[in-house]
Amino acid sequence: MWALVINPVSGQGKGxxxxxxxxxxxxxxxxxxxxxTGNSPASLTNHLEFFLNSTTRCNGVIAVGGDGLLHIVLQxxxxxxxxxxxxxxxxxxxxxxxxxxxxxxxxAQLEQVLTKPARQLDAGLVDGEWFASVLSTGFDAVVNELAxxxxxxxxxxxxxxxxxxxxxxxxPRNYQIxxxxxxxxxxxxxxxxxxxxxxxxxxxxxxxxDMTDGLFDVMVLHxxxxxxxxxxxxxxxxxxxxxxxAVEIVRSKKVHIESKAVAYSDGERIGQLPVNAExxxxxxxxxxx
Length: 289
Description:
Helix content: 25-40%
Cofactor: Mg(2+)
Oligomer: single chain
CATH architecture of the largest domain: Sandwich
GO molecular function: ATP binding; ATP-dependent diacylglycerol kinase activity; metal ion binding
Strand content: 25-35%
Number of helices: 8
Shape: globular
InterPro entries: ATP-NAD_kinase_N, Diacylglycerol/lipid_kinase, Diacylglycerol_kinase_cat_dom, Lipid_Phosphate_FormReg, NAD/diacylglycerol_kinase_sf, YegS/DAGK_C
GO biological process, one term: phospholipid biosynthetic process
CATH class of the largest domain: Mainly Beta
Keywords: ATP-binding, Kinase, Lipid biosynthesis, Lipid metabolism, Magnesium, Metal-binding, Nucleotide-binding, Phospholipid biosynthesis, Phospholipid metabolism, Transferase
Radius of gyration: 19 Å
């Protein structure tokens, strides 16, 4: 039995459309499945937990939505050692990007999921919450805070508007970053702890992150001028920002970050620093191309 978890409001309604398509795909394959959904994160969590507790054998969870839905599902499937596949229907879809799937070839992804065994992938654990892609703090977290409060504009433009509002008034923060082999005390504009490569809808903030190496890639953006930030920003979409002298990349299994700032993981608010994060090798089961 498969769990087909659908967030109908993902991607401004795209979740419902793609969810219907995936259900039809499963029907054509004559595969048993149960649709799990909800009108809020809390209700969806409760419905998924009930399904997993009452099903003797779950082949896997196919989640139709974005990284917000991924965050919800991970908390349920990792402790139960159940595989997860995310079919992209959200705004960012960064977990799918990090795994290397094409966003517009759902059939190929579903064929792999339904015919091949899942493989072990690393997952991040931050203060008791699982995450798959990126834990971050600094400018991007400030932008997320504002974007979550804006009712307009919708979709990705909400984040662009938030960047335009926050950048002129943003100031670097003082951070202590405790790693496996050292402690970095520095001012920084942004810190990204990458299990995966991508966040923010395709920004390759940790372009060399590997979900099977047992380590986080930690990207630190040291202070630069606002003009320099605007100039360098587009290069993050191809991962070329790591060549800038203000960017530092280190690797570590455990990361502890202290500052007067907030943290987000997979686009979801974790809370105020300090935070403790650890890369757990093989904790997640999923499919890669």
